[in-house]
């Protein structure tokens, strides 16, 4: 019984978990600090709630990936996909990828992580299905770019996020 409690305590204090949740907390508190020094940062309670929800969901997904007994390539692919999706959603909500955050074309970019969520559920998180899901996300990223128009910001986002989806697909393939 004592060893089980010691194992739980050491798992709670695992350096990976401390870094993960500490980074999420730091990212969530950064706008609060910035608001004290600049009038350009102006978050509402809803903004903080949305950010906390995003960081919580992403952190939970990374925890599941890290704690799984799957191959390291699978865990790396899952972590890359989660962090890229978090960054895509956060950037899209904050400033927008196509024009401003209120530009309707940004809805297409929000469809990319939705494809990932639906694909992961359908694949039951199996490596082969996750590989296909990442390829579908890369394809959806291209569709979003076409629908939004080929501005330099859209091209940069498509290349960056598309690369993340393809690298994650390769890692999931390696895990099969």
Overview of the structural elements:
The protein is mostly helical. Helix content is 82%, strand content 0%. The protein has helices at 2-12, 15-37, 45-67, 72-94, 106-123, 127-148, 152-175. It is flat, with a radius of gyration of 18 Å. The N and C termini lie far apart (37 Å). The mean pLDDT is 89.
What does this entry show, briefly?
The protein is mostly helical and 176 residues long.
Largest sheet: none
State the share of residues found in helices, binned by percent: over 70%
Overall pLDDT metric: 89
Strand content: under 5%
Q: With helices defined by DSSP (H or I, 4 residues minimum), what is the helix count?
A: 7
Say how many strands there are. Answer: 0
Report the span from N to C terminus.
37 Å
Order of helices and strands: HHHHHHH
Kindly provide the radius of gyration, computed on alpha-carbon positions and rounded to a whole number of angstroms: 18 Å
- Low-confidence parts lasting 5 or more residues at pLDDT below 50? none
Structural class: mainly alpha
Shape verdict: flat
Oligomer: single chain
């Amino acid at each position: 019984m004592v060893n089980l409690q010691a194992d739980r305590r050491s798992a709670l204090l695992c350096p990976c978990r401390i870094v993960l949740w500490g980074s999420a907390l730091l990212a969530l508190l950064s706008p609060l600090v910035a608001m004290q020094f600049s009038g350009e940062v102006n978050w509402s309670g809803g903004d903080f709630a949305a950010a906390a929800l995003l960081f919580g969901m992403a952190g939970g997904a990374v925890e599941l990936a890290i704690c799984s007994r799957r191959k390291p390539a699978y865990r790396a692919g899952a972590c890359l996909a989660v962090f890229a999706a978090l960054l895509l959603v956060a950037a899209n909500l904050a400033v927008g990828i196509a024009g401003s955050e209120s530009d309707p074309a940004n809805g297409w970019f929000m469809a990319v992580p939705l494809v990932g969520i639906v694909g992961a559920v359908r694949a039951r998180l199996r490596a082969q299905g996750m590989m296909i899901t990442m390829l579908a996300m890369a394809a959806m990223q291209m569709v979003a770019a076409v629908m939004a128009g080929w501005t330099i910001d859209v091209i940069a986002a498509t290349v960056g996020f598309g690369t993340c989806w393809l690298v994650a697909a390769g890692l999931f393939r390696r895990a099969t």
